[in-house]
Amino acid sequence: MMINVKWVLHRLPHWEILLLLVFALLGSFEGVLNGFVLGRLPSLTQATTVQRYQYLGVALLAYAGTYTCLFVFQLLIQDALRRLNIALKETLLTVSFEMGEEPAAGLNRLTNDAAQIQGRYFEVILAILSAGFGAITAALFVLATNWVMGIISIAFSALTMVPMLFGQARLAALGERWSTASQATLAAGSDWLNGRGDLVQYQAAGSFFGRVKQRLAVSEKRLQQQTNGQLRVQYGNWMLTVLTLIGPLAIGFWLIHIGGFGVTISVLLTLLLSVDHVTMNIRMLIQYWSQLTGTRELRHLPQAPTPLAGQNAATHGKGQVDLQDLTIAYGERKILNGTDLTLAPGSKLLISGPSGAGKSSLLRVLGGWQQPSSGVVRLDGETPTPADATYINQTPWIFDGTVRENLTLGQSFPDGTLLAALDQVGLTTELGDNPLDRAIHPNQTSVSGGQMQRLVLARGLLRKRPVMLLDEITAGVDDQNAQRIRDLIYRLPNTVIEVAHHFDDAQLQANQVLHYELTPAHTLVFLG
């Protein structure tokens, strides 16, 4: 997916696009005001006092009207930028979410990439609109003043495009190199911050930071090279601008000398004051062009976002689980080898095994989060997707907000249904009066680890999915809370498949929980 002009036009209302065009056109007369007003001064030497004051009145209206239009145009630009930034950040976050990127990468898109696209693409496109109308208006005025000298002046102005024509490919390559280096710097910075514990205890902070400094230096060097490339193009434009000013004047003086084509000093003064805006706007267009070229890679997203799911869809099925010749492997490393297993609706199963045996990978396959290497997985006769089963891991995801917000996730549920889910996990009384409106701040220990885990469990129960997949959900709580949570889930009508290291055999037997072990031989062994 590419963030381009078509994308921009689809994110702005038609009325705003029309107003932007109208006021950009009206404001573009700023470039010819001096030529129109000051170029007439030599002709006022023989004018009357009334004519001179009429001249001042026209000049006042022209300047005031033009700058008012420019003011409105700037207001419209700010509103357009607001709309585009909202759409851009929604798109970047959605793409990052759908790709399953690490949070640091997604936040980099939201901050760094979004700021770069706004400053070097959205704002530049709108500036091109102003500069384009300015160049056209100034060029038409110049031609109307004296078509011969106008053509000569415009022809000289066109020379300023030459540096960009030769520098475009180089600028694009420099932009791509900077983008790659910037991503490497972000990755190194993330490693540095995430590894603080090990770096401190092994006293390796200084040596490891050298890696961060090296990538940071490369990133800044690439940015400097990109900026220097743009400056070189600008320098070429500046040198040619000198030629566009001196060349037409030299020709104009010669035409005055020979008396050709009605060229006068007044005409040359008008052209001198106006052609500069043709040159300036063309030069600005070239500069903007180079900036747009440098953002090409940044604006290329790995995929287009798809519409996000809305309200919670009804879940059908009873919870039948079937595995047929299921094999899970990562390259040469096998997790599970050719396994058959059938669980009737409402069954309870605990899977144990050594660390690294692949228990979590098995749960992810059962939940449709990853595909098996071979074989078949069926939930109620269908290939599972992440929306077909409730999957809960050992790290509860709770965010700053109310209990209601943490349960509903923005979806619509009656309060009675929410309270019933809280009651199922034993939180109705623990959270005090009016529990749905209680504020939760997970980083401030406003709720215990066991309460957070049960709150996440209530969130899953709300969706009424027939299969629950639980990955070490009692690992972070004490034995008393672990037993309480298991007593709860074993009473549920759902099919429950749990992965755990620590468990109570007596509790499993009392609740008729099936117990399988995932062995180093890549098989599921029935233990009871």
Mind explaining what this structure looks like?
By secondary structure, this protein is of the alpha/beta class. The chain has two domains: 5-294, ABC transporter type 1, transmembrane domain (ABC transporter transmembrane region fold), CATH 1.20.1560; 321-526, P-loop containing nucleotide triphosphate hydrolases (Rossmann fold). It contains 16 helices and eleven strands. It has helices at 5-11, 14-27, 30-38, 49-99, 103-145, 147-158, 162-194, 196-201, 205-258, 265-294, 359-366, 403-408, 415-424, 449-462, 479-491, 505-510; strands spanning 321-330, 333-343, 348-352, 374-379, 390-392, 401-402, 439-440, 467-471, 495-499, 514-518, 524-526. A six-stranded mixed beta sheet has the order 5-8-9-3-10-11, with helices on both faces. A three-stranded antiparallel beta sheet has the order 2-1-4, covered by helices on one side. Helix 5 (103-145) packs antiparallel against helix 6 and helix 9 (205-258) runs antiparallel to helix 10. It is elongated. The mean pLDDT is 85.
Fold topology:
Elements: H1 5-11, H2 14-27, H3 30-38, H4 49-99, H5 103-145, H6 147-158, H7 162-194, H8 196-201, H9 205-258, H10 265-294, E1 321-330, E2 333-343, E3 348-352, H11 359-366, E4 374-379, E5 390-392, E6 401-402, H12 403-408, H13 415-424, E7 439-440, H14 449-462, E8 467-471, H15 479-491, E9 495-499, H16 505-510, E10 514-518, E11 524-526
Parallel strand pairs: 3-9, 3-10, 5-8, 8-9
Antiparallel strand pairs: 1-2, 1-4, 6-7, 10-11
